[in-house]
Amino acid sequence: xxxxxxxxxxxxxxxxxxxxxxxxxxxxxxxxxxxxxxxxxxxxxxxxxxxxxxxxxxxxxxxxxxxxxxxxxxxxxxxxxxxxxxxxxxxxxxxxxxxxxxxxxxxxxxxxxxxxxxxxxxxxxxxxxxxxxxxxxxxxxxxxxxxxxxxxxxxxxxxxxxxxxxxxxxxxxxxxxxxxxxxxxxxxxxxxxxxxxxxxxxxxxxxxxxxxxxxxxxxxxxxxxxxxxxxxxxxxxxxxxxxxxxxxxxxxxxxxxxxxxxxxxxxxxxxxxxxxxxxxxxxxxxxxxxxxxxxxxxxxxxxxxxx
Amino acid sequence: xxxxxxxxxxxxxxxxxxxxxxxxxxxxxxxxxxxxxxxxxxxxxxxxxxxxxxxxxxxxxxxxxxxxxxxxxxxxxxxxxxxxxxxxxxxxxxxxxxxxxxxxxxxxxxxxxxxxxxxxxxxxxxxxxxxxxxxxxxxxxxxxxxxxxxxxxxxxxxxxxxxxxxxxxxxxxxxxxxxxxxxxxxxxxxxxxxxxxxxxxxxxxxxxxxxxxxxxxxxxxxxxxxxx
Lengths: 307, 228
What we know:
The structure holds two protein chains of two kinds.
Chain A: H1 7-13, E1 18-23, H2 31-41, E2 47-50, H3 62-71, E3 76-81, H4 87-99, E4 104-108, H5 129-142, E5 158-163, H6 173-183, E6 187-192, H7 196-208, E7 216-221, H8 227-235, H9 244-252, H10 256-272, E8 277-282, H11 290-297
Parallel strand pairs in A: 1-2, 1-8, 2-3, 3-4, 4-5, 5-6, 6-7, 7-8
Helix pairs in contact in A: 4-5, 5-6, 6-7, 8-9, 9-10, 10-11
Chain B: E1 2-6, H1 9-15, E2 21-26, H2 30-33, H3 39-51, E3 55-61, H4 71-79, H5 82-87, E4 90-94, H6 97-110, E5 117-119, E6 121-129, E7 134-136, H7 154-157, H8 185-196
Parallel strand pairs in B: 2-3, 2-4, 4-5
Antiparallel strand pairs in B: 1-6, 6-7
Helix pairs in contact in B: 4-6
């Protein structure tokens, strides 16, 4: 029995090590950008997230780029943030994406407006990501809107949420994950993992809380492009933990892109050893070409074909 | 209190263009605390206006403790200046927007013709603290959540206004990603609940908030205060 019948859900149910990848939509109305990226990514993951105004920058809507992905034969994961929509708009979009055949959703809070290109925008945050997950679950399983009213046809969505195992307070993070699971998250995609030891400790605590029977955790990974990017992620991206070892390796590498891919593949292999991890989520951030290489070298291809 | 800063004098003079006779009215509450409309500021404003060719008919500064936003206090004071207000071309109010609008209502009620009325300050939020540093702590949401949150309001002190714990952007040293100079409200809540032995309060899911209690404009009727 599936909840939404998405390919991602089936892969996870079959206990295959799942792979998802991220596609960043363009800062324009050009569908060809999405098609080109979809062409690069196709066949190298089980489902493909489309970011929703990532870092609060106005871009093509996630749901729209998801439709283009779908036309290109990829299974989309629509991302939806609480930053730009209140509970009315979110529920409208949930119904809309389901009607359009999208079967996976990632419910997010959303990066704060001051990080983006419209810092004067009024942030919404009517609800938070945990409340949003619960609303989608109540819509899907109960056929109920947040206000309690019923709907005829329920949305069919495999519900995802994000987690950052590295942000403070570290001791609280497994409990926050528990709340997301209680709210109704079927799968979790984490912040990029570089500090594997710390992630392992986090997963142990998650396991000790008895949470792993109820959710699939996909560990976030991504290739570092340059030593500058490594330093930036280590110091400027909140809640990101990049050990010095990787900064040194990126600095000393002859071919930094190659080294970034090597590190990513190493991390994936280490993550695969951690109990309770159901897959990985590759965030290549405007470097889609790296995804097929990483998937290949990490031994994740071909992707399973589950009927 | 209502935090506030003084408007640039250029903006004030722009409002008062072609107005010759001015009444300046300051507040003995927040505007005194924030140095935007206490006695010294009212006096200084009167001087600056005179230097700019205005005739200041009255420079009224409510004494500390008498607030412009409390209608009985403003009404009693303004009645003493009935003639000056009758004669003036404009009233400049050095208080928050509540104070100005209460004064406007009184003047509209007491005089036959509407009087032009202008602000001299920019209110920047309700805040507590002092005597030097003030911080926004409460947004008067209509349904206080502090009892579950160790006495720290994340609706106001977290830019995203969460009720279910910290976002993923808390920095390594527990600061807020939006302003790394400021401690994450949820780290503060966590630490305080931990010290109080009440961390279990963070485990339950808080339902979406009923924002209809903030539907504007809000109003309330109470029994009048007896001021001896």
